[in-house]
Each structure stands twice: as structure tokens, then as C-alpha cells.
Design a protein that fits this description.
single chain, Maestro heat-like repeat-containing protein family member 7 isoform X2, mainly alpha, ARM-like, Maestro_heat-like_prot
């Protein structure tokens, strides 16, 4: 490791004079000499086949290249895992010890090597709570490359399947990365989250998966098409793992809270998002026991689905209205249009008691009249007229009206 750190230092410092001095030989420059010393040390300790294996992969050349150095470091460590080297565990312990120093000059090389070593089950078995806390502290560093490697470490923990306790310590740090100001870290986090959802179980990680369900909410209207797609992919995969036996508060509340959003995104500008929403709706219907709606979700258009949803779940009309209100802020004009239209339909079904609870809708529709999309602004104005007309009707109800009352609303 000392020789590897020396090589990293020389590459980082640009100490490659042999490239500029044509008369110098590789044996004379410090970088090549360090690489040769590393090879010799490994051969003398019984790792000659390992040296040859790295040579076949081009690892030694990458190690001396400024552009490919860290790829070379990764290759070295990965080869040790593949060859199941006896020294994997002691080297891992050594790296953890030096990473207790936050300002260690070779921290990136150490993390590159450590991340690969953790793929080895024998190495992973040595990870205790103290080790995890040392790693967790590095999430606070300001180096994106290290944070990305830490996210890969978390992914490796999940893949091992027997590191539940270690993973739980790192859960809040992973979710915190979703709010990073660095776009690359956010994308890396979502890539890792997709893997986590695939490998985690409700039995051992119900709290984390439930938190993730809530955290995804605002990202469904993300302007970044790639990030929005990943959010829907994660939610779709998460829903597929949910059984009726685990659908309890607060998860059930959030699943119900996202129904209108899923329906409206059947018209998402990204076809891939729309394709995710339909099976997600069908699985939602399955775990909620909505057999009739499931058949409609599976093949009908948006408006047929919305009308059927309002008809069957009329006691949740106000809740659906609040979901529409959130979608008024969608960056996609067609979704805002549908949200306003559906809000108008819901309003017409409300009774006097429920109509008194929609002051917020008045305010939002007032803003929507200034929407840059002419169709949205027109629909908002029309819906406001409907509200005013309904309000007058409620003030002076016709004496011959014998309309029956719907059951009171419910939010569970």
C-alpha cells in the first residue's frame, strides 16, 4: 500500500519527467521504478500470477497514466478480490485505520481500493459498527468522488444481504445525498437507490423504504427528464415489493396520496414514464383491493380512469382535489391542464360542508389564470366561474332538491 500511495502521489504531482526527456529510460524515473518495485514485492510474496493477470488487463500501464490512474487502482483491487488474495482483510483493516485521518493525502486511492475490497464476502464480514461510523463520517466531506464511492459501498452492503445493521447506520446519509447541490452526486444516489430497492426487503428495511416513498414525491415533477424518470422507476420497483400485509400507515397514506399523480402522468412527455405509471397504478389497485378499478387502470384512458376513480372513491374527493392542487405546479402544461379540469369535476361533486374547505383552491386557480399556457389559464377561469356559481347555489338552494349525501370523507 505504501508503494501504491507513492505511485498515486507521483501521478498526482505530475512527476513523469521521462515523458518529457526522451533520453531517460523507464528504470530511471521514480514513477516507473515504484511500479516495478510493487511488482517485485508481489512476486516475492507469492503473487506472481496476480502480477501477470494485471498485465493482461493493462492495469500496470493504467496505473502510470494521469488519465487512467484511478481505473488502474480499481483494477488492482478488483483483481485481488477475483483471485481471493489472503491479504485482502489485513489491507482493508489498514485502509480503515488511515481513513480515520480526514486529511490523509491519499484518501481517494484508499477509498478506491477499499470499495473494491468490500465486494469480497470475507472482507465484508469484518465490517463492524466502528468501521461503519468511520465511513459514515466521510459523507460530510466536500469531495464528490469520495461521496460517490461511499454510495457504492452502501450498494455493496445491500448486495451482500447480511449487513442489515451496517446499512441502517448509513441510511440517513444516503437519503441526504438526494438533496446534494452537486447534480452528479444526486444522479449517482438515484442509481444506487434503484439497486437498493431491488435488494432490500420490507422485513428488514421497511422504515428506509417508507421514507424513500415520501422522499420521491417532489421529484415526480422534476424538470430534469432523466431524474424524473429515475424517480418513477424507483417508485414502480418499490410498489412492486409491497404486499397488502405491509400496507399500513404511513405507507398506505402516501400510496393513496400519489394516485392522481400516477394517472395524470400517463400523459407524461416522457413515454418511458407513462409506461411505468400504468403497471404502478395496477399494483396500487391490487394492494388496495380495488379489483374493478384495476381493470380500468390496465387499459382505459386518463379521463375514463379519473371518472371511475371519483365514482368509486367519492368519499376521498377532497383528498383528490388536494392532489390536483399540487399538480398545478407541474412543469408540463398538459398535466396542469388535466389537473385543473379534474379539479373542476371534483368541485361539482362536493356538498356544502366540503365546499367550505376549498379556499386554497380558489387562491390557486386565481394564480392559474395567469398560466403561460393559454389552455390552462382558460380552464382555470372556467373552473372559477363554476365555483362562484356553486357558491351562489349553496347560499340559495332550490327547495325541491332531495340530493342524498355521500359518506363523509376519509384519509386512510
Amino acid at each position: 500500500m505504501a508503494l501504491l500511495f507513492q505511485i498515486s502521489f507521483l501521478v498526482a504531482e505530475g512527476d513523469t519527467d521521462f515523458q518529457d526527456q526522451q533520453h531517460a529510460t523507464k528504470r530511471m524515473d521514480p514513477l516507473s521504478s515504484s511500479v516495478e518495485a510493487l511488482k517485485m514485492l508481489m512476486r516475492s510474496t507469492g503473487y506472481g500470477d496476480y502480477v501477470s493477470y494485471i498485465q493482461e488487463l493493462g492495469g500496470w500501464e493504467l496505473l502510470t497514466s494521469p488519465e487512467g490512474h484511478y481505473e488502474g487502482v480499481t483494477l488492482l483491487a478488483r483483481a485481488m478480490v477475483i483471485k481471493n488474495c489472503w491479504h485482502n482483510r489485513p489491507i482493508f483493516g489498514f485502509l480503515i485505520r488511515i481513513l480515520q485521518e480526514r486529511d490523509h493525502k491519499n484518501r481517494l486511492t484508499a477509498f478506491m481500493f477499499l470499495t473494491e475490497l468490500l465486494r469480497c464476502p470475507d472482507v465484508a464480514a469484518t465490517v463492524d459498527e466502528v468501521t461503519v461510523h468511520i465511513l459514515a463520517n466521510w459523507f460530510q466531506c466536500e469531495e464528490p468522488a469520495i461521496v460517490k464511492l461511499l454510495l457504492r459501498v452502501v450498494e455493496t452492503f445491500a448486495k451482500h444481504g447480511n449487513m442489515v445493521q451496517q446499512f441502517r447506520i448509513l441510511e440517513p446519509y444516503v437519503l441526504g445525498c438526494c438533496y446534494s447541490l452537486d447534480d452528479d452526486i444526486v444522479m449517482e444516489t438515484f442509481t444506487v437507490l434503484k439497486c437498493l430497492v431491488e435488494h432490500l426487503t420490507w422485513k428488514h428495511s421497511s422504515s428506509f423504504l417508507t421514507q424513500l416513498t415520501f422522499m420521491l414525491g417532489p421529484l415526480f415533477e422534476e424538470e430534469s427528464e432523466h431524474l424524473r424518470l429515475m424517480a418513477f422507476e424507483i417508485y414502480g420497483a418499490l410498489l412492486a415489493k409491497v404486499k397488502r400485509t405491509v400496507l399500513v400507515f404511513p405507507l398506505k397514506h402516501q400510496v393513496l396520496n400519489l394516485i392522481v399523480l400516477l394517472v395524470l402522468h400517463l400523459e407524461d412527455a416522457n413515454v418511458n414514464v407513462a409506461q411505468i405509471c400504468r403497471p404502478a397504478l395496477c399494483h396500487t389497485a391490487t394492494i388496495l383491493g380495488w379489483s374493478r378499478l384495476k381493470a380500468i387502470f390496465a387499459e382505459k384512458d386518463v379521463w375514463t380512469i379519473l371518472r371511475a376513480l371519483l365514482k368509486q372513491e367519492g368519499n376521498r374527493a377532497l383528498w383528490f382535489l388536494k392532489q390536483c392542487l399540487a399538480l398545478f405546479k407541474s412543469p408540463q402544461a398538459p398535466i396542469r391542464q388535466t389537473a385543473v379540469r379534474f379539479a373542476g369535476q371534483i368541485i361539482q361533486t362536493l356538498d356544502a360542508e366540503e365546499a367550505n374547505e376549498i379556499e386554497e383552491v380558489y387562491t390557486a386557480l386565481g394564480y392559474m389564470r395567469e398560466d403561460p399556457d393559454s389552455m390552462v389559464s382558460c380552464l382555470a377561469a372556467q373552473t372559477l366561474y363554476i365555483l362562484e356559481a356553486k357558491e351562489k347555489l349553496l347560499v340559495n338552494p332550490p327547495t325541491s332538491c332531495f340530493c342524498s349525501r355521500r359518506p363523509r370523507k376519509t384519509y386512510s
